[in-house]
Protein 1
Amino acid sequence: MKKVTIIEDEKNCFLCQNCLKEWIPAILAHKKNYKVKKGEVIFREGDPVKGIFFVKSGIVKVHKRWGADKELILRFASEGLIFGHRALGGDGIYSISATAVQAGVVSYVDMEFFDATLKVNTNFTYDLLMFMAQDLRISERKMRNLAHMPVKGRVAEALIILKDQFGLTPEGFINIELSRQDLASFSGATYETVFRVINELIQDGLLVLSGKSISIANYNKLLKLTEDIA
Amino acid sequence: MKKVTIIEDEKNCFLCQNCLKEWIPAILAHKKNYKVKKGEVIFREGDPVKGIFFVKSGIVKVHKRWGADKELILRFASEGLIFGHRALGGDGIYSISATAVQAGVVSYVDMEFFDATLKVNTNFTYDLLMFMAQDLRISERKMRNLAHMPVKGRVAEALIILKDQFGLTPEGFINIELSRQDLASFSGATYETVFRVINELIQDGLLVLSGKSISIANYNKLLKLTEDIA
DNA sequence: CGTGGCGTTGACCGGGATCAAGTAGAGTGG
DNA sequence: CCACTCTACTTGATCCCGGTCAACGCCACG
């Protein structure tokens, strides 16, 4: 587990970034870093809540299961982002799971300390509130999409979200390695359907593939698929 | 517009309830009350954000449109609850609509004042944070349901939520008057489908109707429909 | 060389949306 | 008091999107 400097943390971590300068040393003293392997489960739905996490590096998917073999990916937490914060004020049980989709390091502070921080450090609480309001808007949009938007639009929107969050490689591909299964779970559809839809999008010239990597060839047309012009 | 006493507000209003005693007079001085008629639109998706609302009496639905004639009801705000708070830290445009489904009175504070309150009154900010974490958990459960749960389960869950939120009349019926259309939008399904599903549930002895009023005859079986036992 | 995971594709089918039409009340005007 | 309209409820017929199942190819890895 590599040692990190305060400066590095300030840059990367949602907690430090939004926190008063004077508090950062105290937080760093409490934060623990864990290395996570690709596919490693960080916590699971139903587990007792221990604390709050931040992504230092790598990518973490936040997901919710249905039955034995179905899941919905709610969001991806990338560098600097908080996750596990939905546990705040809950019943002490995680309502979602978190799994690394790309190896990295996650930071962790125990719930007690985090809660104390919230109560004292009002700046941070305020910023977290804004962040969660944003989360809520995204969730609600996604809810509506799941209820009314056809799969093609949902896949299009998923790709746009991924592009916005992870950016592009120098070659113009969406800068995340994601299994088709995960893309399907993120779109709220099945593996096979997403596969077919992606093929359609390629036929229509909106996407280009290179191996597993996806490139958006026609952003505007893709965006149009996510609209509700009836 | 009837005059309200401080005491009444303290009891009913999310803002006052979670606020420091010393702040309540200042808040009351800023709060405006509006009478709303059944079906009256309080604000609409796309409108510029003016402020934050609280339900003093009546019931307000928070909903999101799709195309010309489809919507998804995200939640109902009943007495004491806040709504419009998703606008916090956003782009200044409401991402959802709010409409009264039962006549009543809503309180309103302008965004500037509300924001100032948040920054100063840390207790309230903390409580609101907890409230929004709860909102988020509910949203995410609903997202998963829309993605994976069949309509029958969604209707069952919708009815359970309504029962929990609004309670029962002395006769044992869910204490809210809701059009089938609204129930459908809340379940994320069409009018006709919800109608058929309710009939099935009556056939199976899980529900009893009396006019438009719905009574849950077998709570445990209804609850079982919302589970994911594969 | 088998074996297991993932990608790929076709065939099938069923839940639920859509369309269409009929009924029942609740107001409204003559 | 009756006809008329309008909206909400009710129900059947049809259709199609997308989920399910099954099979095969491919490649990595033990």
Protein 2
Amino acid sequence: MSTRSRSVVTIADVARACGVGTMTVSRVINGKKHVSEEMARRVEEAIARLNYQPNEAARTLKGRTSRTIGLIVPSLSDPFFSQCAHAVQQVAAEQGYMTMLFACEANRSVEAEELSQMRARNIAGILIVPSSENSLEQLQELRRSGMPVVMIDRTFAGIDAGEVMVENLEGAFRATNHLIDHGHRRILCVGYDREYNSIGERIEGYKKAMQTAGLSQQYILVKRGVPIGPKVVASLRSAKPPSAVFTLNNVTSVAVLSALKREEIRIPQQLAIIGFDDFELASLLAVPLTAVRQPATELGRHATRMLIDSLRTGNGGERMTSRIVLPTELILRQSCGCEPISRIARPS
Amino acid sequence: MSTRSRSVVTIADVARACGVGTMTVSRVINGKKHVSEEMARRVEEAIARLNYQPNEAARTLKGRTSRTIGLIVPSLSDPFFSQCAHAVQQVAAEQGYMTMLFACEANRSVEAEELSQMRARNIAGILIVPSSENSLEQLQELRRSGMPVVMIDRTFAGIDAGEVMVENLEGAFRATNHLIDHGHRRILCVGYDREYNSIGERIEGYKKAMQTAGLSQQYILVKRGVPIGPKVVASLRSAKPPSAVFTLNNVTSVAVLSALKREEIRIPQQLAIIGFDDFELASLLAVPLTAVRQPATELGRHATRMLIDSLRTGNGGERMTSRIVLPTELILRQSCGCEPISRIARPS
DNA sequence: CTGAAAGCGCTTACAG
DNA sequence: CTGAAAGCGCTTACAG
């Protein structure tokens, strides 16, 4: 009863039960082409009766690639990535693929290690929010061997892979302009991870808006791990204190918001703020946050579809040039200085 | 260059390169017992030089179980589960296991389907936040065939599996008592998913506290999908309006908070609130939320360790009776009526 | 300490 | 439409 024998029933058992060859069973499992109606019925009945389930390891060993895709994200603690991951898993499952999950923690060596695990497991394709230049070479090698790769949210040059991005520049441009429209002249741009092109594009958007308006730019761009809140607070006491701040991602927004709260700085009166990246609780904050919403779910969905498409067409060996860029949306709340939308009078 | 041939180099290639048998290479890969020092060195050098990587599918086909564990959670959108999932993935990776991810969306048929996929993929063991009674039988069948299973956060009776829970009753008891200490007499208990024992225990904790204090209980317990906020608001206009509310999980807390905000009901003056489940932004809310903190990360860590332990000892075939119950913590903020902690004067 | 043989459960050509 | 043979890349006994 407790022998460690899983999947006890094999294709041979089914074949025997029907008095046919294993090939016939295999054909039925894989789309029943060239099998007579009646035969197919008999085999299917036996499969159901014996509760047979094909062993994926065996199929993989022959077919060289498993119906599993790998997903590498920096972290699942960040709601943006977890939402994305959720969408990936959903779409993959719908299409009959399983998802192997990896959270690399933006750790260089971990990402490389994970990539090599992927290869060992005959993963069909890779979805990655790339965090490290170090694993680039390995990624490229995987590509060369024909494994399809799709980069999500940010990309590295030199990798021949599909890309699903967001309109970072446009979103940041609009956000900054909105602040300018509110009359702000000294707008500070704050954030982490400037080495990623997603963040880089947001910075460009900010820059473009400031330049267009003839305003001078101010930045606080630090490395991950450096507490950024105190720096923003300190800038408020400088000779030219900013009257508004544009934060480059949600981690930054939360860090800045925490510091402002701690220092009892009033938003938006003393400092207005717009963040890139919206999140569920943004509207329930002490001062509801105006934010650039990124379609995290759509990002995951599109990327997964792109990957599976290239798996189906089997053109992973060719160049993967697809690129999708999704629009962002500026969600106006109060932290930018906008008034709360007056509620419709409710009938008592 | 672009043939779909991954993992081109096999164990045979390595063996040939060293002029040894494949067995010797296999031994080196798997812990180098009974291999001479020099031989091991030679083989390892060849492995590195050829960039050889053992094919997991082949190993699995022989060994019957892959170094992969399956994780089934209801959703990754809920930060509690995504944090938990993150911890699982981390610990598993440290121990050399990969994580196959499934988000079942509390969908009965999906959970069952996923479970059967697990079997097909020779998964070594299962970590599950169970959502459905429907898949119980299947889980139990998996158990019978020797697959170790650990349930996280909530459990179903009749499944012989490891359990990692949280002190739900105690946490809820303490939270309710705290509200009573603030002078509240009419405390409403609100939530979803009463069918889960985790939620059931929280209800018991509330009940115990109310009974001990000689107070009468009030409940709003609804099915998933039903908007719960409006019901809480409505109760405020009843003959015996509650002066405080205890919410049974974070989804409920957020729903109630949203409704209270919409109706401009002041917290804690008009209605005090304590929620079960803490979250990152709780302290940045309009009124910082007092909450029972669950150690999501610890939950994931312990569960993964428990699973891997039973994989190592190979006692999956025997009964899995381990049970870990982690403590919760009441995080006092302002929504319960407590005063904000006075800040330490900062040197200007 | 080392290796030749057999086989894990499936699928890919190849015949009929 | 159907099946016997061979082999995917590894590991498990079994010999030396």
Protein 3
Amino acid sequence: MAYDHRDIEKKAREKWAGLDLYSTDLRDESKEKYYLLTEFPYPSGDLHIGHWYAFAVTDIYARMLRACGKNVLYPIGFDAFGLPAENAAIKNGIDPKEWTYANMARMREQLVSMGASFDWSKEIVTCDPSYYQWTQWLFTKIFEHGLAEHREASVKWCPKDQTVLANEQVQEGCCERCGTPVEEKRLTQWFLKITDYAKRLIAGLETLPWREEIKEAQRAWIGESEGAKLRFDLKPDSQGRTLGSIEVFTTRPDTIFGATYVVLAPEHALLRQGFAGQALKNQKEVDAYIKATSKKTERERNENKEKTGVKLEGVTAINPATKEEIPVYIADYVLASYGTGAVMAVPAHDERDHEFAKKFGLPIRSVIKPTNWIVYTADGRRISIDELSEEERQNLFAHSPSFASAPILNPGILINSGEFTGKNSEEVKWDMVKYAGGEKTTQYRIRDWLVSRQRYWGCPIPIVYDREGKPHAIPSEHLPWLLPTDVDFKPTGKAPLASSKELKERVTKIFGEGWTPEYDTLDTFVDSSWYFLRYLDHKDAHDFSDAALMKSWLPINRYSGGSEHTTMHLLYARFFTKVLYDLALVPVDEPFMERFNRGLILGPDGQKMSKSKGNVINPDEFVQKYGADAVRIYLAFIGPYNEPGSYPWNLDGVASMRKFLERITRLVEKHAVVSPVHTVPERMQQMIARASVKVAQDGDRFKFNTSVSALMILVNELEVSTTVPKTVLQYLVIMLAPFVPHLAEHLWEKLGGEGSVHKQSWPAEYVVTAAQEVEVVVQVNGKRRGVITLATNISEADATTAARTLPTVSVALGGKEPNRVVYVAGKILNLVV
RNA sequence: GGGCGAGUAGCCGAAUUGGUACAGGCGCAUGGCUUAGGACCAUGUCUCGCAAGAGGUGGGGGUUCGAGUCCCCCCUCGCCCACCA
């Protein structure tokens, strides 16, 4: 064994513990600041390979930045509230707090053992009252500014976890945590009004140099649609009493003349209010449909796309454009939570409406004629549909099933549309809105952020209710509003805090008889929406952070994390920052300058790791056998870290890195003793200079795979040299240090280096000098015909003359004169004949 | 169904702006050193060809002196969203 990694890694960590290498002085103005953030972990217990990938590789960059002279803030903490602790409590009878703190203790040790250079002096823990006091304080500020609302709405409910979920936490109709199909419930809950910020959340993306796919995913999630609100009045009943009106949202107001019925979501408010206090003629049938819908899970509602619905007998709407009386339906294909919860149905120009109309035998009226449609006539000619006569067109529609059965979705020329007939639908769209008495609006797909959770292990919502049930923010002098401990955790569908006697007594004592507490806790995503602000001033008991430090350290330079947070945490954190910016609490309105989503480590079989597939890699095995350093550098080498790709774990990968490290150790041992310090030959200066630039540049791009490759090339080059000066070896070790911090420390000592290798500067003594001569590829007509070595400053004419002396070139030219020469200095010379 | 991204050797992957396609590694092969080695060292490793050379980045077309890179069509895979009016 060339080196004993257990001994080396242990000794290195002991050495660092005595040196306090990574406590960042936030007020040091002498160096350029760099705030490098990596998503803080949930204390689940053990570090799996994903944790290693997240923390070890980002750590490499933190170390590189320090070596390059930056004042680096690289903090860590724990996102410590959450369901697993509570589930463990229910299952094993352990206190969630104990469970969480025990896990954190274990994970701290593991994080240290991977050689991560976190600044532990600034650690935050979201379940600690000193932290959640400020989560609560910020919530009260948001509440006071009207951006937190307590209101009744249809919400997603997970029957297994017995709690509501945010829209973002529902995936394919199932609970993001446990996979149980979610249900819809009508509940009064707390919402943060993220929809008020939808426009700015989209606009803000423009200013960020993020990967386009991340921005696009956020834009799609926010889902901006421009359209109109139109009012369909209901026809008064036989006694002349008004029945009100139905407001719809549409992106296609140009099709208003084709609206032949109106559809309400089964949860629509009108159905609860009733129609002038009168029962519908088929009230029973309608009620049964509403009830059946409410029983369905979201998944059931989506899976069966066969259209269902019921006509509201006795209610008639009036199309505001045609003034026609049209029927009103309820159907579950219309969602209560989008737009106004009602649509005008235009079966001729919308697929869903078309399907529904066919099933219920409703009139389908075309109001748009497509333009520039290329069709094939019976005799095989290709012509535009515009060139057909009306008769031919009708004939085509009658005989072509696709024309007859499919709605026309594109805009075109209006037909059957009163005074708008013959006009271009896109051009007169907004005039038609005016004509129909509607107004232009923008609708967003994103829903307000539901933050109430009927669970125990979370931040208590800092709200109390007065005798009338009106919510009030808990004044700051009573914060932190402590999570009670006399609580029954068992999920019953009611918030566990409701079982706390202490909490009720606390409220009575402070606010008076008749006042009641809020029993729900906050979604843990609220805790993590501002944690990066707290690192700057993690102990402050008087403020959530430090204004001066926020000014000098924000925005965060680079944020590294997982792509699963693109439309959750990342969106929430941006929203929070914008709100706090508006409240003049933070100095920036975008928190993260750069964002990098790392990829996924797959099992050796190329499949996603899972216990059931038996392809789970346990990092500890590899750490024990080959050392933390070998695992670190393998993870750096496995693939580019700047794109969310997925990389299969190569079972020989860590071993091969270990071999590389052993070769380095032998190289250092061989030359450290025999070669005294002497001048570094030009050739080696160039080797070091090239590696230094390449490793650092690729590190900046989060392409550690090619950084490692550059180090391998350097080692390969040095291995074949008979003598290697100590200076060169020291530079090599300094460049290795971010990747293999323990071994580098050991080798640094072997080389007689002073202090710690992690205090050394990145090699910058040598610069890559421009070569005097360079190899240029010679092409004839774009085909490679040879290579010549030319002075870098040679003229095109001289280069051409030189190239033509090559036999292969003169053969290829065949005696002809080139009529064009393309010369890219230092790269290529192309003779075109 | 919609959106986004990606397809380069047996495998992971290199190739800043269009400029020598396959760097680095894994695996494999041959040889050396060894009692032995799953250790170490050396050499080789896209295809055809003795060679000169020719072909080659999912398939087909195009732009260009020159295309992995840009444009159009198609195929496959991955991720996200999914009755959003």
Protein 4
Amino acid sequence: MRQTGMKVRANRAASGRVRMLDVAREAGVSAQTVSRVLRLPEKVAEATRRRVLGAIEKLNYVPDLTASYLASNRSRVVALVLPSVSMSIFADTVAGLTSSLDSAGYQLLLAHTDYSLDDEEAAIRAFLGRRPDAMVLTGVEHSARAEELLRLSGIPVVQTWALTDNPIDMVVGCDNVGAGFAMGEYFIERGYRRLAFAGTNTELRSRQRLEGFARALAGKVAEPLVVGREDLTRQMDEGAAAVDEVLRRQPDTDAVFVASDALAAGAIFECRRRGVRVPDDIAIAGFGGYEIARHITPGLTTAEVSGRRIGELAAQLIVTRLAGKALEQDVVDVGFRIVQRDSA
Amino acid sequence: MRQTGMKVRANRAASGRVRMLDVAREAGVSAQTVSRVLRLPEKVAEATRRRVLGAIEKLNYVPDLTASYLASNRSRVVALVLPSVSMSIFADTVAGLTSSLDSAGYQLLLAHTDYSLDDEEAAIRAFLGRRPDAMVLTGVEHSARAEELLRLSGIPVVQTWALTDNPIDMVVGCDNVGAGFAMGEYFIERGYRRLAFAGTNTELRSRQRLEGFARALAGKVAEPLVVGREDLTRQMDEGAAAVDEVLRRQPDTDAVFVASDALAAGAIFECRRRGVRVPDDIAIAGFGGYEIARHITPGLTTAEVSGRRIGELAAQLIVTRLAGKALEQDVVDVGFRIVQRDSA
DNA sequence: ATGAAAGCGCTAACAG
DNA sequence: CTGTTAGCGCTTTCAT
């Protein structure tokens, strides 16, 4: 029996995988000392440490963090669930998270859901199986099951890009209803009267922007025409299709609030293609503050939100919480800003 | 001693973490049977299986895949290293990878490097610590150390978006030199004589496109002016800055090949802003086939590459290899296509 | 400052 | 079809 065990070991070693014990033998110390060199180097004598580091280098040892987690119950991993990897706005959030988390020694793992709550639940479940120390989600809408799993997991959870009174744990985001409302007021102040909203049916954040938008118009002008899109893989195509639908169903529309800058850019491009002038024939405003909003002609009026700041704050909450410290607040509103350009 | 062990166990269970053994007890079976229900359900009697699944559901059990890996030596994880999460062209690759990998039961983990080889090495090292079953890299340029670690790890590695004669393991990509050459010929055929190239200094793929481009011009027209950018976080800003530099240093330039569509879009926007007509005053062509190439005015002439296909093929190579089957070829060229639009 | 023993949650191998 | 045993590579705890 022992014998068999030994043989398996020998085979493994021969197959190329270097274990902590191999490093220990090379350095003439115990595995324990190697472990200490890796985690608490100051607790090891200078000379020993140097020998161990030399052995690590020589053998190209890569510690198995999976085993490390199992023994220590800390994975040093933060999991991030994103709707899509292609949206530049989320890229800022990722950058903010990464820079703050890196310095604290955490690794960021990403999954994407293609804007499907079912896919999100699957991603969350898969992630929980990897035992991350914390999880960051996009939005505040999740399957009941996903929320339950998250709560039971006991790890810190940060929901982002929206706000809610009933967070799973912590929230860093902006007031989407408020942003929609502000954009509605903005249009009305400027005399637009025949309005439309173009967004996605599947995203709560988009629907919240509509809610605020409609509320701002209520009692002042007619209800906005609402055009909803499902597929978000080709954002500009969808934006073009949305403005097409608006123009067809309500030809006298004088302004459209589009729920994301990428869609809005697609809408502006489509208008140019068909000779519809922006903002003279139709005004267009977006949401997000993507790079393209500054570059496109006409410049895109938009409700700007700092994705970077969301990422940084989320990281900060997580690091604080994992350090066992108390939080000043569980819900952080990063705000938004209506940036006026030529499109509306 | 035993006593202590038991106490720890009890505490853990009380603290909320559900283990396989808890499920087993709830269902009145052994842990092994629970494990089988999870991995080989057809090997378990219908009634037993149902009881076990019921217990899993009831206790909200989430299997610890970390421990599973440790015991089975298979993590069911494929790691993907991307330069940036915001580039829509990589999004297609991710989508292609995900759809093929999901169905084979693999989970995709992502890291990003911000176009830094050092960051890439760090990401690879961190990933290897999580013991993925395979790894997908972007490009064929890596630190010597990173390549060595990858080779020693023994896992399947796919390099993407470029080709090389000396792959770490497998490659799925396109001929960047060839694409640059084709674009050079395209410009020359159309009578452009004063050319420029705008790309990134840090990306080998960009430099390869330049290499082919310059080769196509050699002996026919003057050498192209080369403008290099370093920072890639704000692609459109960089594209605008690049065209600005071209116009300043070589005012009579009649055509620019820009190494990526996002940069090229930024260049076109900048031209519009300053009243430079595209293509009349200056022609612009890009690389990639991003969504914006079809939408922007004028439409962007570009060397189109199917990012989706790269992802799908990479997944296919990995799945085949992990199934222990032999590969028909280790190097796959997905090709490119010059798509003519109005910008050049 | 260093080492030895025990165990983290799971699966492989074998037995029945 | 189901259970038992041993061990994956690491860290914790305790001892020296």
